[in-house]
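JOB MANIFEST
job_type = single_chain_structure
chain_count = 1
residues = 344
[input]
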Amino acid sequence: MTHSTSIRLDSCAKTFANGAKALDPMSLTIEGGETLIFLGPSGCGKTTTLRIIAGLESPDPGGKVLFDEDDVTALPIEHRNVGMVFQSYALFPNMTVQQNIAYGLKIRKTPAAESKQRVGEMLEMMHIGELRDRRIDQLSGGQRQRVALARAIAVRPKVLLLDEPLTALDALLRERLRVDIDSLLRSLGITTVYVTHDQAEAMSLGDRIVVMDRGKVAQVGTPQEIYFEPQGEFVADFIGTMNRLDGNVVDGVFQTAGGTLPLADKSNGPASVLFRPENARLLPSEQASLSGTISTVFFLGDRNRLIISGISESDITIEAQNSVSFEPGDRIGLAIDSKNLILV
């Protein structure tokens, strides 16, 4: 593909007829060829944003959607040249696999020879050539998802839009398709907007992630920026596992029920600190300034997950090597580098 379409949202908000506000004004640029993920809990506005990009919803007056520099705000979906994959697949049950893939080409009046060639390319790309003559009700969930992707891509859209495409699949198949989709998107170079509530999908597929909270953009950044530099408590709590310690800061030392931690910040007063499980090192309790009691041990195969109480008001979660034995009731100490603490 020689050109990848950029997308610009300019003050796009959405208020429904009943007065419900689904989306606060949003301005955002999606670079050509980028895979941008909208991530957030149910009802946060991510699917509404996708539908505005698609042309299935109109933004409130004053909002604009531009593909490259072309204003497409008033154009319906059939005139935007977008490919869309839904959570429900939306395949035609009365058609075979190859007929489903060819559907978009047919309504665009693509010549028969070219249509046949493109369908063949899609069957090969999605590794479903042996399924070409099967009906949709004869396919597994993963096979249906591949057909839906093939149908969306066959028309060579300017923009590919995916709305929770893997949600209905089991965990192992989701993981496999995630790898396949990532490889596919990288090879095609199509500008892609992907909606999900699954953090692992967002982290593995996105060039950038837009974290949304109640109709607002909470943070935009690379997966690394979102994870290591969360802006605000919502993003910190929503992305990955985040531990919280409540206490007081006195001359740069954070004091909590389970001990103390040095901080880079020298302020004083009530405060909380956040940290990731992997940023804590385990020590014998007598060697640590911060210690608690193991209340639960979960063996996860490649590691142990420890739930520790007595350090703060709420329990904290720590990941530990599976080669070391831990038992509920054991006292354990923690060391956390100040650069890995987020003071809130």
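[summary]
The first strand starts at residue 7 and ends at 15.
The chain has a mean pLDDT of 92.
exit_status = 0
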